[in-house]
Specification:
60% helix; mainly alpha; 511 residues; three-stranded antiparallel beta sheet
Length: 511
Amino acid sequence: MTSFPKPLKHPSTWFRVSLIGLLLFSLGLRFWGLDRFNTLVFDEVYYAKFAHNYLSQTPFFDGHPPLSKYIIAVGMWLGNQMPFGQEAKNGLTGGLYAPWSYRWVNALVGGFIPLVTAGIAYQLLQRRSYALMAGVFAALDGLFLVESRYALNNVYLVILGLLGWWCLLLALGSRGVNRAAWLMLSGMGFGASVAIKWNGLWFLLGAYGLWVVAQGIHWLQRRDRRLHQDFLLAEQDSSELPSPLQKLFQLRWWQMGGYLGVMPFLTYAITWVPHLRLNAKNGFWQDFWALQGEILSYHNRVGSGPDVHPYCSNWYSWLVMWRPVAYFYRVTGKDDPIPSEQVLPPTSAEKVIYDVHATGNPFLWWFSTITIAIVLVLALGLVVRLVMQQRQPVTDGNYSLFSGVTWGLVPIEQWLVLFLAMNYLANLLPWVRVTRCIFLYHYMGASVFASMALAWLVDRWLRSDRTYLRYTSIVVILLAGVAFIFWLPIYLGLPLPPAEFQLRIWLRSWV
């Protein structure tokens, strides 16, 4: 493979200013026109109503854990105290609220996802340019933007799972009491993600999977000291900083079981206290376990296919963004007011379409899928090379299928590849066995790691001594940016003439 220069040492001030700019960009898009539709959009008909039920102390059943509804409820209460955003209200939740009230916390939390993604990327590679690239790609994802602008729950699941990983990486770079504190926060983050939806468990699954891999590598290293030099101890190479993931094997089984087992469970259980007090029947633990069974039974009863919901999609279709979800669609006259809960016919012949499509950035999505496939091959090559190296000496010509594609990775990048591959698979493969109706937004957890893989490859190519790789990376960045701007009207629900709307629907399966 081509050689790469040492990481550039950008001034920390430049990096911080860039991150602040990224945060302002992300928050600005999420808050701009947040109250455009004075109605309930898509699953706001559930989550905003459930949040009001907590405020009004009305018992109810929900098919998901309660944490996101608590957060939305707090936002609704605080939002009603604010002196702004109260111009239009509706009673669709069961109480009188402005759309701003039940959406602003989602916008605030979702705006920080690019920053948290950048933080994880920096911990993994200790390279500011990679961290910034990962944050930019997260900010250019249309699906995360749409999910952040309405009272939905997926942004909470993703950011809490990412915070769990960020704290775990910080723990691995710390010692003593600081490590214990970060591990505790990591367990709380993972547990809180599960308390949004059960599929938040996939983030924790990725952590356990990578810990098992680290233990296996450490065991192989003790058997063959060549691995000690070739794979694990990057700190012996003065040109590379060690990855915190190299220290995963230092975590004992009781630490994993305590901090990343008991702590997530306790966090999850504690979040049920307000809900079970509102819906009390028996004792806490009896009601708790009974409700888990009811939720499982509910999801088992949900079928799949267009008869259940027109936007059901198969897990493998997410990789190419085959079936996005239309959250809102109204056709009005050009001079008509912005549509709300009342569906009125257009008053003029010249029509405009208000459409909110929960879809990713197509070019970013497709490039990320290609890149994560490359990362999976690289990860497989690393594992095969490690296992086969135990059986016979490595000589020229051996393992040509994999050694050629893994040899150019420095140790810190090898750990990055394993991290991305494990977390991507942990957030995708469990959906293979799910039989109920699932949607494109269930891919959000996996897509974060796919876009982080693309950011790594683009950043690496930008540093290449080969001109065509540098130009290719620039083209990828430009295409992702231009695509985001082009599809921005259907992310934000801006009015479009029918011809302009159709111009953005590239596939028939998108409608």
